[in-house]
Amino acid sequence: MTETPTELTLTLDGEQVHAKDGETLLDVCRRAGKEVPTLCAEDRVDPMGSCRMCLVEVEGQRRLQPSCAFKVQAGQVVQTASDKVKRHRQLLLSMYLADHELDEDDLPRERGTGNQLRQHVLDHGTGPKLPAINAPREYRMENNPYIHFDPEACVLCNLCVRYCDEVEAVSAITLAGRGAKTTIATADQKGLLDTTCEMCGGCIAVCPTGAMTEKPSLASDFREEEVVRSTCNFCGVGCQVNLHTQDNKVVRVTSPPAGETVNDGNLCIKGRFSMEFIQHEDRLTQPLVRGDDGALHTTTWENALKVAAQGLMGVKEKYGADSLGFISSSRCTGEENYLLQKLSRAAFGTNNCHQCAAT
Ligand code: SF4
Ligand code: SF4
After folding, report:
1. Spatial separation of the C-alpha atoms in residues 120 and 126, rounded to whole Å
2. Ligand 1, atom 3: nearest CA belongs to which residue?
3. How far is the CA of 17 from the centre of ligand 2 (A)?
4. Architecture of the domain made up of 288-358
């Protein structure tokens, strides 16, 4: 029998708030609508407290505490925006900037996949400008077609590694090196294709700085115009995808946020990266009907459906309903598969319907 977590009360920025035993201060802050900046926090993995962005002041604690990892306690008095907390955030951001590629406005470069570090600098400002740290990190040779890693844009939050370990259970990447040479590496700095990596791209999705980026989208100028929600059609799971378009072409595929859809923020290699087929010149974009000359000719959907229906009805009338068979695909959605069996049974009167995933 699972125990119901104990309700407790604490003081957050001068107001009494309720929490459940086992929650973190960040959980409570978010529920209370507090703007606590984070880089390394992600609900799907255990907290690490590595980026130090989410530090808050807890009465009785000598140091500021990472709200993502610090558990609530009854009677706690917490401040999320005290002068001490604000000074800490600004100094921390100054330190990140000293070890980061900056654009002409002295901001971390926008990287298409989003750069939360840049946004934090804009939202919270920085402390004194610190001299740039000259500590180039080790690059690795990557010949994979999908994932680009730029070590100079990395803040070593280790979120990509934790995602790879705890969500994908693959452990293809790891923190390696010491001091200024620390970086995200693979075993023997091999390219990802020579590791256990499944090319799921989840490390890109969680990376808060864009240090991990989709290679195909690097070729675009990140001027994405529209995001369209769709259902991935590579298998029947029904993962939801966001199609990012530019000049009416899909340039990037991402998952809706974790917790919103069946795929919980995750995608596989096919769902995330296999998008060339959408605009491929070999793709059939118009219905075809075979003419009396034996060749396929383009036609309207209305005519194609009419010809197909007449053909099927003709077979049924001549040989009986059970001479027909309907085969569906696991690449269709559950709804499409349901409709096909409905067509088979209700419209044509046969139970001869099958789907490839059933074999
Ligand atoms: S693509 Fe997926 S499996 Fe490969 S390193 Fe990134 S998270 Fe791990
Ligand atoms: S690559 Fe991104 S997610 Fe990984 S440690 Fe660096 S900043 Fe964090």
Report:
1. 9
2. 197
3. 33
4. 3-Layer(aba) Sandwich (3.40)
Verify whether ligand 2 is closer than 6 Å to residue 153 (CB atom).
no
Q: What spacing in Å lies between the alpha carbon of 244 and ligand 1's midpoint?
A: 21
Beta strands in the chain (DSSP E): 7-12, 15-20, 55-58, 65-66, 77-79, 147-149, 174-176, 183-185, 212-214, 226-231, 240-246, 249-254, 288-290, 296-298, 326-328, 353-355
Domain ranges within the chain, ordered by starting residue: 7-124, 222-282, 288-358
Interval 75-126: pLDDT, tens: 999 999 999 999 999 999 999 999 888 888 888 888 777 799 999 999 999 9
Phi/psi zone of residue 14: left (φ > 0), alpha (ψ -120 to 50 degrees), beta?
left
Class of domain 7-124: alpha beta
Higher pLDDT, 57 or 217: 57
Output the DSSP codes for 177-191.
SSGGG-EEE-GGG--
Looking at domain 222-282, its CATH architecture is Single Sheet (2.20)
**Contact 117 CB / ligand 2 (< 6 Å):** no
Task: Report the pocket of ligand 1 as residue ranges, CB < 6 Å.
Answer: 147, 163-164, 168, 170, 172-173, 192, 197-203
Ligand 2 contact, 147 CB (< 6 A): no
What pTM did the predictor assign? 0.87
Q: Is 340 in the pocket of ligand 2 (CB under 6 A)?
A: no
